[in-house]
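Sample entry (381 residues):
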Amino acid sequence: MTTTLLTEDQQALVETTLDFAQDYLAPHALDWDRHEHFPLDVLRKAAGLGLGGVYVREEVGGSGLTRADGVLVFETLASGCPSIAGYLSIHNMVAWMIDQYGELAQRERWLPRLCAMEDLASYCLTEPGAGSDAAALRTRAVRDGGHYVLTGVKQFISGAGASQVYVVLARTGADGPHGISAFLVDKDDPGLSFGPNERKMGWNAQPTRQVILDGVRLSADRLLGHEGEGFRIAMNGLNGGRLGIAACSLGGARNALDRSLAHLAERQAFGGRLLDAALQFRLADMATELAAARALVHQAAQALDRGDPQAPHLCAMAKRFATDTGYSVADRALQLHGGYGYLSEYGIEKIVRDLRVHQILEGTNEIMRVIVARGLTEAFR
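Predicted structure, serialized as tokens:
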């Protein structure tokens, strides 16, 4: 990653995060993947560096950083382990939503422990029958005096079962996006349970389970924002979440590219190093594509920081392009390793598996194209 345009503070942030990734993530990433181990102790070490509340305001324990800072953090973390970096991105998305939309009492109750990662957080939007069409969700929250009663099932929830705090999107009104509200659910609330840990292609170092709400009764002060604001809260959270996952794709792919350079420099074939053959042009293409994707991610992060009306479209562009590019670069890195790339001990196939899901989560890349297209054609409707 080029650092020539970074401020001194950003350079220090990258260096500190890189030290953490190299010391605490990279050496264990293969074992965590193999044994499906979620390293809670390492996550709490990350919180000691301020990575549990990257975008959260400082008065409740956060680091108060910008989105432009955040993409640097998550790219660097993902160079050590995309799966753990991806979970940290989701945790930070939830913490930001609470900080941005919560009342003071909610912020003071939930955020200090989230920023310290004494509690972990999960985002509960997707359902078994409502994935990309988030406005079609069926989980309901029925008002009962001073309480809401939540019933429904959430699907593909990262961190489920290990997390203590869940931002749950549920229907409080009519069909469509304006009938959705957001709620803060605690793991210990009666009626909350979890499905079995899903067996996945990648992201094995974090649990993915259903979150089952069977008449979960919440006091009205668990409503995040106002009734009917949930969809807007969810989408605004996803703008930042998409940048986090895009940055994780860059970090994982950059690791794969670096491994390919080292591998080709060592390998001999036809009387010379593979690095000196035509394969170097493939490396040049991979590096160029990553640089282009990084530029788009940073442009979108800066737009989100300044409140640019085009930021949601730029975030969708960046997520689509960076995750497609990251997966493509990792896949080509595997090919450049030949048979060794297919062996788990070399770590390349894990990167490929981990990055594949980035094209699906936080809104599939097909939906990213829909968002961009709507922005382009809005004036002609």
